[in-house]
Amino acid sequence: MDNNKKSFKKLTTDVLRPLKKHKGFDIWLFFLIVLFAVSVLAYLSQLSQGLGVTGMRDFVSWGMYIGHFVFCVAVSLVGMLISSIMGLLKIKWITPITRLAEFIAIAFVAVAGIAIIVDMGRPDRFFNVIFHGRLQSPILWDVTVVTTYLVLSVLLLILPMVPDMAFSKRLMKDAPKWRLKLYNLLSFGYMNTPEQYKALHKLIRILMVLIIPVGLAIHTVTSWLFAATLHVGWDTTIFGPYFVSGAFVAGVASLSITMYVIRANFKLEYYITKKHFDLVAKLMVLVSLVYLYFNINEFIVPGYKMKQGDNVHLSTLFYGSWSGYFWSAQILGMILPIVLFIFKPMRKPIPVLIVSVLVLIGAWLKRYVIVIPTLLHPHLPIPEYIPENYHTYVPTGVEITITAGTFILVLLIITILAKLFPVIPFVEYAENEKIEIDYDILNENKK
Amino acid sequence: MKIKNKIMKRPYFQFIIITLQLLLMSGLSFSQNIAENPLDFTAMSINSGKKLYEKRCVSCHGWPSEGKNIMPSIPDLGTNITINKDDGTLYATLTNGVGAMPAYKDVYNDEERWEIINYIRSFDPTMKNKVIGTIVFPKLSFQFEIDEEFKTANLFVGEIKDDAIVPLSQLDINFFVQRMFGKLPLFEKPLKTNLLGKLSVTIPDDIYGDEEGKVKIIAQVADSDTYGNVERIVDGKYGKVSVYENMLDKRTLWGVNAKIPIWLLGSFFGILIIIWGGIFYVIFKLFRLKRL
Fold first, then answer.
1. Mean pLDDT for the stretch of residues A290-310
2. Shortest CA distance to B173 belongs to which of B135, B212, B227, B122?
3. Is there a contact between A206 and B281 if contact means CB atoms under 8 Å apart?
4. Would you call B257 and A135 a contact, using CB atoms and an 8 Å cutoff?
5. Contact between chains at A214 and B278 (C-beta distance less than 8 A)
6. How far apart are CA A6 and CA A29, in angstroms?
7. Three-class SS of residue A350?
8. Which of A136, A145, A162, A193 is the mutation pick for testing B, counting most B CBs within 10 A?
9. Given pLDDT bands bounded at 50, 70 and 90, which one contains residue A6?
10. ipTM of the complex
11. CA of B68 to nearest chain A CA: how many angstroms apart?
């Protein structure tokens, strides 16, 4: 009994220690802010000079920004996969990394929204989408569903965190006042009474169920932005599940990277174990195989028939000017994890980290390849008198800086969230591991 | 046929064809310098030209100097744009066509084309007093009315001679309905007036009018060489009512927001209410957690 109480103490100490002030963290934060400021400067120049500073022109009017947007939406889907699907299936080992998945989901879906605004030449007209939008347009559905998913993800972060907050506010007495106030607010007066426990878990289950259709919708609707047109390469019926399955691959890759970095920096090796990397790598094989199945359908079926438009498009991808990007995306983002993670030695933390970084690069390239080559083959041929730089698309320095800046913003959000809240849901973890929770902590501070 | 195909395949032949087409299109036709009007500028030729003009030209160009050409790019032929061009240019255009205008060399013979040009020239103020000869058409009394009850068109044609009206019997009359691009003949052949100079015909009941069923019915004396262009127009609700379906009034996926299909509207807000209902329920219950 006493020993058990001790282990809960160790758990809370280990999980809450990284939340304290740390010099290395401050340097990292400063570094991120400086990089972000540079991209803000680039954005200001785009804002004042217009979208002409990008490589986008009349024909390729969706460039790197939209590719990046699709990538962000894709990665954010990991929140739904890990905390909802795995949670509803009552898979216990996933508990220590569910909160990380939710951090990633929030960061990426928020930045996805920003990526859309960055792509607008007149962002001050953003609200025209809502005031003058047409409900028939998938763009309006996308705005709706991205917002909904962000709200659900935030709730799915906050609700499972309520017991942790109740403990944290009492255990971190020397923390700054604003932090204690925030913890107090987010603990919602939780005292672990049986009624509260039951009600809270019911609410979490409602959220888990709600987020599944919304999670599927966010990426399906994003795919419809493309698939609802007649463009070669986009005009396909499987784009919804194709995007969703690809999203899981990108999401799991980003989760493994975050796991590795947080585990190493916050010294959480005891909680996020080698077993977690092994299992996440296996999960990656599963989602990559599903993605492979959709890729086979997406490319073999039109490739077998080679209709006139598909012929031009697919030959550009398979052995034409886009083949470098295409095969990099396919091999890095899909084949590599399947082939490597089959072998047990590759499922150790460092190989998992390296492969996941490659998968994430492949996943990003894949979205780039989905968006741009199709636009280079418009419905009607580009007339010859059109200036040379309208025929091709080369992202400019400003564009790359801004895109990198949105990625920095993702890191910034994850960093701040990980420093603000305990990254491991320690109350739930203790329940799973049969560590006796010292509820006296909640009661002794009641006065 | 085979030989022709072989010729067509030769690159230089195609080159010549393209060059010729370019020359014709740019109005640099050789014929414009060569062609001179072989006809005299007679009142008779102008009158003949007018008849030909009515058949093929008026539907797009409108009557000269009335400004009823259907498009700005298709000029009113009574304006300076056309009148300032020389006969050769007009002849080349009429013969070979230009832009969207077809070639008329297989439609009207050489003389007919020149008659049309004479007719167009008659709108040139400087040419007005150069017309050779005059045509004096007989004065006609032409009454045309439609009996709405019996849907019959009744007409009377007589020649006015020294205050007396002499009925014209066995006179050919053409009936038309005015359509957007010209006159639609109502009957295959002209009908003849009786001994009293009268003619009575039942109007077919399958003529479509506008949204109210209004149509313009035209009775015209066929022999314009003798009588000139004599016609009477009656305007009334003698046709069937045309129902025009405006696609923009329907609820479609491509319509404006107000015209959204009901199923989509229902689905969108239905899903939105369910999901956000759940979200608000969770938030509401979360804030009541304290009381439990």
1. 92
2. B227
3. yes
4. yes
5. no
6. 34
7. helix
8. A136
9. low
10. 0.90
11. 35
pLDDT of residue A33: 96
Report the 10 Å Cβ neighbour count for B78: 20
**Which three-class secondary structure string do you get for chain B?**
CHHHHHHHHCHHHHHHHHHHHHHHHCCCCCHHHHCCCCCCCEHHHHHHHHHHHHHHCHHHHCCCCCCCCCCCCCCCCCCHHHHCCCHHHHHHHHHHCECCECCCCCCCCHHHHHHHHHHHHCCCCCCHHHCECCCCCCCEEEEEEEECCCCEEEEEEEEEECCEEEECCCCEEEEEEEECCEEEECCCCCEECCCCCEEEEECCCCCECCCCCCEEEEEEECCHHHHCCCEEEEEECCCECCCCCCHHHCCCCCCCHHHCCHHHHHHHHHHHHHHHHHHHHHHHHHHCHHHC
Q: Which of A113-122, A163-172, A420-429, B9-18 has the lowest mean pLDDT?
A: B9-18
Interface of A with B (CB under 8 A): 132-136, 141, 144, 148, 151-152, 155, 158-159, 162, 188-190, 193, 195-196, 199-200, 203, 206-207, 210, 213-214
Angle formed at CA B17 by CA B15 and CA B20, multiple of 5 degrees: 105
Read off the DSSP letter of residue A427: H
- pLDDT of residue B29 exceeding 80: no
Contacts of A6 (CB under 8 A, 6+ apart): none
